[in-house]
Amino acid sequence: MYLQRKIDKYLSDWSLKSTRKPLLLRGARQVGKSWAVRHLGEQFDHFLEINFEMMPQYKAVFQQDLDVKRIISHLAAISGIPIIPGKTLLFFDEIQECLEALMSLRFFKENMPDLHVVSAGSLLELALDELPTFGVGRIHSMFMYPMTFDEFLLANGHERLLNERNQASVDNPLPETIHNKLVELVRTYMIVGGMPEAVAAWVKNGDFLHCQEIQDDILQGYSDDFPKYRKKVDPELLRKTFLSVASQMTNKFMYSEVSGYKAEEVKKALDLLAKAGLIIPVTHTAANGLPLGSEADPKYRKMLLMDCGIFLRLLKMNIGNIQEITSHILNSSVANLVNKGPVAELMAGLEIQYNKEPNLRHEMYYWQRQAKNSLAEVDYIGIKDMKVLPIEVKANVSGSMASLWIFMREKGLDQAMRCSLENFGKFTYTDTKAEGVLRHVKICPLYAISMMLSI
Fold it and tell me: Is the peptide bond before 22 cis (omega within 30 degrees of 0)?
């Protein structure tokens, strides 16, 4: 059973373009890259998948030279599958295992532009660093992530529920029964996460323990990959840093928490984990205007783990029994679920990131007041209608949003977003510290972050 993905449309659109380039699909292991390409392959008369980890014999085809017509002829002869421009999808999987194949992609654009060529792999950034040159302008990249909440809903057969949600707005909130159903599904998603194998297991048997076993296997696979970084970073440092990200979730990352290593060493480990797609940096920005990156300060960063379910399993490795946390997610009040613990803020950040266009690697930002004795922080800073958009993850009550009011006052903003497990809505805050200026806040439920920019 194929689980429908947002990226399917982008892959299909790519395949129909007359000006397409060879495609490089990038992302962490186990996020569904191969599955999505195989699904795309169903649109073609012929589909040839070459996995360089499983079929290393194919490497020799690329080691003679990079004449793509010779390469195609040899691949067709070995596989017995015709490779015909316009009718065959050629898929190089785990392409980082064959640098020559990675280098050949540029020549497919130059010498066989009508052939559909897709490549994918994990740890691709390491491989790209080893290449003296790469096909800038001749290769198109897409970035793939774990499944979003919307994709989770579709996988579980809730298409009608998703359609109902998509009709709602801040002026037209959902009926309480539908809202409550979506809140319960958010609780489930926080534990199952978005790794496709875990989601497929949940769809099949609804067993949290089975999903957790799959998450443990995925984590073990990531750990087994760490020695492949050995030339750049000590594998033990990577493991410790990965665990430390879980411990420091949604707080400013402190290098000193990774014991036994210097700050520069930990920074290098974080950079590699980010390149591998296992963590997502959220960088402080002064946010006085656009682009947000022009005032970013990488000395102040939060780190998000790439999946809620993986986060909980990694947290188990740190603190042991997480039964209390799991019970909190499943049973606590909506207010406590959002305001206590990092899971809601993590989910919000991942949903913001994963619902962006996949054709770029997008940066994420937050704001932190630097003044002494005046702590203030806004969870995420986005852009809407070419203006800075502050985004707070809070349960309710405007009085608990002092940091947001400080930020809006300092930056002269009158629009903000609150992500919570409330229904759709909006409210206006009279800022008595700014001569009664009105601050307008829209409420975007955690289950509707994909709609944030349109509500």
Answer: no
Tell me how far apart the alpha carbons of residues 166 and 148 are, in angstroms, rounded to a whole number: 15
Q: Which pTM value belongs to this model?
A: 0.94
Q: Using CA atoms, how far apart are residues 398 and 343, in angstroms rounded to an integer?
A: 21
| Positions of E strands within 265-344 | 279-285, 296-305
**Chain length of the chain:** 455
For residues 351 and 345, is the Cβ–Cβ distance under 8 A? no
In sequence order, the 6+-apart residues with CB closer than 8 A to the CB of 17 are: none
247-260 confidence digits (pLDDT tens): 999 899 999 999 99
Distance CA 333, CA 338 (A): 9
φ and ψ of 200, to 5 deg: -60, -40
DSSP annotation of 358 reads T
**SS3 label, residue 419:** strand
Of the candidates 316, 334, 294, the one whose C-alpha atom is nearest the C-alpha of residue 213 is 316
Helix (H, G, I), strand (E, B) or coil at 18: coil
Q: CA-to-CA distance for 171 and 165, rounded, in angstroms?
A: 13
For the chain, state the CA radius of gyration: 23
The b/e string for 289-319 (b: 16+ C-beta within 10 A; e otherwise) is eeebeeebeeebbbbbbbbbbbbbbbbbeee
Query: Which helix (H) or strand (E) segment is 177 a member of?
Result: helix 176-192
Q: Please report, to the nearest 10 degrees, the dihedral formed by the alpha carbons of residues 27, 135, 21, 85 taken in order.
A: -110
Interval 193-246: pLDDT, tens: 999 999 999 999 999 999 999 999 999 999 998 988 877 899 999 999 999 999
Residue with tokens 């109902």: 164
Across the range 440-452, mean pLDDT stands at: 97
Indicate the residue type of 390.
P
As given in the structure block, the two tokens for residue 254 are 């402190």
Q: Under a CB-based contact definition with an 8 Å cutoff, are residues 112 and 72 in contact?
A: yes
Long-range contacts of 258-265 (CB under 8 A, 24+ apart): 261/234, 261/237, 265/233, 265/234, 265/237
- Return d(Cα 229, Cα 124) in angstroms, integer: 11
